[in-house]
Amino acid sequence: MSAGPGNSKTLLTLGLVCLASGVGLYFTYGRQSVSTPPSLSISPDVEAVASTSSDPILLPGGTYMIGSDTGPRDTRPARKLKLKSFRIDPTEVTNAMFAQFVQATGFQTDAQRKGYSLCFDKTSRHFVRQDGADWQHPDGPNSSILGKETFPVVHVSWYDANAYAKWAGKSLPTEFQWEAAARGQSLSGDFPWSLEPDREVHQLANLWQGEFPLRDQALDEYHGVAPVASFPATEDGIFDLAGNVAEWTSSYYAEDSYTLVGEVDPVGANRGEMRVTRGGSWLSTDQTGVSEATVWYRGKLTPETSTNFTGFRCVSNSDPSR
Asked: What is the pTM of this model?
């Protein structure tokens, strides 16, 4: 393709967007605001959560693959790990599930206490600090989650997600548990599905189709977040492990995690300024040659950051009686 004026303008736009989504997220919306972690001493209410969520999926103990030798530096080297069995929720935590938590505890999220959250604005096509955006008002003070009870909750920080998980008697997955759930026990593949000849990617996940950030073709029928389980599950019955919303994990981010991590039930680095997110979101595109929706891609955000493209799901012990 020739590098004419039009192409140069497009490349410049994409470069600015990458800068906003990378450096901007960390320095402007992460480090600048001082956020006090909410109390995590909330009593678990497993019975309440059970009434709003499907049965967790058992992932058997065994050998799983992590990383990619052809991916970014922080995903190398690809390695085999041994994990104990665990259960993972089949969907991301929904607005209805989070509402039950808030009603039971009176919990206020980081975004509610700060008075703003981070949005990718579909009109301006930029990442913006949106005053009045929170989990109940995903697009700002004049928006609502009414009728969106089955959508994944967004505008939740890592602290918010961790507080919910503790209340539910569960935890956030380590990034290695998350990747094991996305891959299954397959030792190959880049996505949580095997692409069938008669199925296109937009039929399998809520991702960005078109030239980011200029135009979303919405071949998947969604300009933004979709209700959970709108797309096919993995072979294990887990939904939305690629796209829709990025998902918080319990793991600290470190670039060399895959070099240093142990081989049996690793949790990752023991400290860091950011936490790992996984799975990409409705904003994910492969225009740069690497899609955030791959099973091995490692996102990262400061733990007080909340956005309209980040949510979470929970894991629990493989023995539900414990």
From this structure: 0.84
The two three-digit tokens of residue 202, written as one number = 């937009």
| H or E segment and range at residue 130 | strand 126-131
Question: How many domains are contained in the chain?
Answer: 1
140 conformational bin, left if phi > 0, alpha if psi -120 to 50, beta if neither: left
Q: Is the preceding peptide bond at 266 cis, omega within 30 degrees of 0?
A: no
CATH code for the domain of 149: 3.90.1580.10
Distance of CA 115 to the CA centre of its chain: 22
CB 63 within 8 A of CB 186: no
In this predicted model, what pLDDT tens digit does every residue of 104-146 receive, in sequence order? 999 999 999 999 999 998 778 789 999 999 999 999 999 999 9
Residue 12: partners with Cβ closer than 8 Å, 6 or more residues away:
none
pLDDT tens-digit readout, 1-31:
433 444 433 433 434 334 334 434 433 344 4
Residue 197 lies in a domain: yes
Q: Give, to the nearest 10 degrees, the angle between helix 158-167 and helix 95-105.
A: 70
How far is CA 139 from each of CA 43, 77, 122, 249, rounded to the nearest angstrom? 31, 39, 10, 24
Q: Check if the beta carbon of residue 59 is closer than 8 Å to that of residue 181.
A: yes
